[in-house]
Amino acid sequence: MDVKFKCNCPFTSALDVVGDKWLLVIVKQMLIEGKETFKDFTESDEAIATNILSAKLKFLEEVGIIIKTQRPDNKKTNHYLLTQKGLGLTPVLIELAIWSDKHLRDIHPSIVNGEAMEFLRNDKVAFAHALEQNYRKNMAKTLNKSSVG
Amino acid sequence: MDVKFKCNCPFTSALDVVGDKWLLVIVKQMLIEGKETFKDFTESDEAIATNILSAKLKFLEEVGIIIKTQRPDNKKTNHYLLTQKGLGLTPVLIELAIWSDKHLRDIHPSIVNGEAMEFLRNDKVAFAHALEQNYRKNMAKTLNKSSVG
DNA sequence: ATTTTTGCTGGCGAAATGCAAGTAATAATT
DNA sequence: AATTATTACTTGCATTTCGCCAGCAAAAAT
């Protein structure tokens, strides 16, 4: 289940890891939608099958993009969190969204186009920063909540 | 063979198109390595199988990322060129390379690390610009060459 | 006229994906 | 304390995609 690198090209090597139908979707769900638990992922719009989800989470953990944690008050529910390596994928996701915005509306007109998209168009660096800050903040909040209550 | 969009999320929608093992590798080969013909691709480091290559080129053409052209002096060799939509993926590729550089060297130490990588680290916007300019220049050159000689 | 190159296509086994059902452990409810 | 519900998976099986290899026709080079 470990990565096979085709060559020493930095572009291709990244794709050897995350160039997959599901991996970046999972990272996006964590970063943008704050999903953490197995159940969170199964309830998503993208509807990933549980066996695939299980395998992909295992893989993401193996390569160090996420870590599996538990809360002291719950021995069952696993919480998957992005590592630095995982958060480092934020700019990749952002460029993908920008590309969608510019080049995909012709064949897929119903792509969302709200104020978040406008923020992203106006200042992608700030948007990336805000996303990462927000992720860290929420992570701290939920971690704290569980250890208190 | 056409795209199935899972939802209206701009992140996921981009991945519905290019979130694949091969598509971005092919785009990278065109942009960075100047590959244009079927044979060029088959001779790459990444060694894509011909049937897959054929299918992927067809798909990339369908979604408008590349176009298939011919030179007046050669009725056999097809030249695949990036469209604006295709060139628009440059920032995505660049962010992937940056991520590799930062986060993949621990599990894949032989990733190339020359002066191009340094240029990329120092100024990714300039790097992207240079890449696109270079692509257009070479495209013009080869197009010109064929119509002359 | 013959050989080589180019751009594919087709067959077939292997791997990845997707759907549905099942399970075991924990947590919540009564 | 007993029952029910939830969570995080696993298993089985059908379908799709991948990947190697061989072949092949049209065009180009010799």
Textual characterization of the structure:
- The structure is a homodimer of 149-residue chains.
- Chain A is built from eight helices and two strands, in the order ααααββαααα.
- Chain A is mostly helical.
- Chain A has a single domain (10-148), classed as Arc Repressor Mutant, subunit A, CATH 1.10.10.10.
- Chain A has a two-stranded antiparallel ribbon with strand order 1-2.
- In chain A, strand 1 (66-71) and strand 2 (74-82) form a beta hairpin.
- The longest helix of chain A has 25 residues, at 124-148.
- Chain A starts with 9 loop residues before the first helix and ends with a helix.
- The model of chain A has no long low-confidence stretch (mean pLDDT 92).
- The structure holds a DNA duplex (30 and 30 nucleotides).
Features:
8 helices; homodimer; 149 residues; DNA-binding; Arc Repressor Mutant, subunit A; mainly alpha
Helix-strand layout with pairing:
Two copies of one chain form a homodimer.
Chain A: H1 10-18, H2 23-33, H3 38-42, H4 50-62, E1 66-71, E2 74-82, H5 84-87, H6 90-103, H7 115-122, H8 124-148
Antiparallel strand pairs in A: 1-2
Helix pairs in contact in A: 7-8
Chain A binds a DNA duplex (30 and 30 nucleotides) through helix 3, helix 4 and strand 2.
Radius of gyration of chain A in whole Å, from Cα?
16 Å
Main beta sheet of chain A: 2 strands, antiparallel
Multimerization state = homodimer
Distance between the termini of chain A: 38 Å
> Which architecture name of chain A does CATH use?
Orthogonal Bundle
What is the number of E strands of chain A? 2
CATH class of chain A: Mainly Alpha
Percent helix of chain A: 55-70%
- pLDDT below 50 for ≥5 consecutive residues: which ranges of chain A? none
Identify the CATH homologous superfamily of chain A: Winged helix-like DNA-binding domain superfamily/Winged helix DNA-binding domain
Q: What form of chain A results from the Cα inertia axes? A: globular
The biggest chain-chain interface is: A-B, 51 and 50 residues
Q: DSSP strand (E) fraction of chain A?
A: 5-15%
**Main β-sheet, spatial strand arrangement of chain A:** 1-2
Class derived from helix and strand content of chain A: mainly alpha
What is the helix tally of chain A? 8
What's the mean pLDDT score of chain A? Answer: 92
Topology order of chain A in helix (H) and strand (E) letters: HHHHEEHHHH
